[in-house]
Amino acid sequence: MTYAIETSGLTKSYQKTLCVNHIHLKVPFQSIYGFLGPNGAGKSTTMKMLLGLVKPTQGSVSILGKPLNSRNRLSILKSTGSLIESPSYYAHLTGRENLALVCMMKNVPESDIDRVLAIVRMEKQQNKKAGHYSLGMKQRLGLAAALIGQPDLLLLDEPTNGLDPAGIQEMRELICSLPEKYGITVMVSSHLLSEIQQMTTHTGIIHKGSLIFQGTMEELKKHSQRQLKLKTDNNPAALHLLESMGLTCQSQEGYLLLPETNDRNTAQLAAYLVENKVGLLRLEEKEKSLEEIFLSLTGRQVSL
């Protein structure tokens, strides 16, 4: 087994609307795989198909080395935890009582509750009614429920949605600890570019139902073309001088951008400007942000 999740031509359409378009997912074992895309791109639909909650129109799904079908679905789900869209809970029950119900449904001993409470750091809030939890605590409760039964695979759909910065940081730390500490493969969807960048080892970018990129974060960053970013006391004169050297430059927000070069050429460039009475105020290396890479891959700006 190479991949915890592998799909082939996975497709879902509702009547004439194509929601997921022949995608080939490859999620390595013990990775944190970020599933990135704007709202409505097909993330939740794809994750529901991976759990057997939505039937694909076409294609196949393999989870933990087994084909997902009616014969294997229950055995696969025993090794899988999920938090899709928003956590489900009974508001009138305590956090611990909610987890006890999950244990009963999964046929797992209630002794497992202490383990998952420790993982999500909820020991002190376990006897408080779930209806009185903050949004962050409800997300933790949902994650604890997904971890019941020691799953090998965890699917989390927008787990930081609606959280404040402190809650996002706590959830991020929890998710990042799961592969190394517990050997769990995590697939996490998000429309937040910064979250994917800080949490994941691998990523897949979905846009209008199609997978437009898949690979490691390092491979994604290779799409970022480094540039030199400089600011002078006379940018129009500097632009003329640099173009006379045969360099391709562009002006952007008070800076000049030109292709990255080696240290020796950069030093010569700076000296040439100074010799020609252009003061160099700032010189730095610029790398495309993940958002800029996303926009270049999709070819257009979308609302995230």
Describe the structure.
With 304 residues, this protein is of the alpha/beta class. The protein folds into 2 domains: 219 residues, Rossmann fold; 61 residues, Alpha-Beta Plaits. It is built from 11 helices and 15 strands. The strands form 3 sheets. A 6-stranded mixed β-sheet has the order 7-8-9-4-10-11, sandwiched between helices. Strands 1, 2, 3, 5 and 6 form a 5-stranded antiparallel β-sheet that branches. Strand 5 and strand 6 form a beta hairpin. Helix 4 crosses helix 5. The protein is elongated, with a radius of gyration of 24 Å. The mean pLDDT is 88.
The low-confidence parts are: none
- Distance between the first and last residues' Cα: 34 Å
Mean pLDDT score: 88
Strand order in the largest sheet: 7-8-9-4-10-11
Number of domains: 2
Structural class: alpha/beta
Query: What name does CATH use for the topology of the largest domain?
Result: Rossmann fold
Instruction: Report the CATH superfamily of the largest domain.
Output: P-loop containing nucleotide triphosphate hydrolases
Report helical residue fraction: 25-40%
Portion of residues in beta strands equals 25-35%
| Rough outline | elongated
Count up the helices: 11
Q: What gyration radius follows from the Cα positions, in whole Å?
A: 24 Å
Provide a brief overview of the structure.
The chain is α/β, with parallel strands linked by helices and 304 residues long.
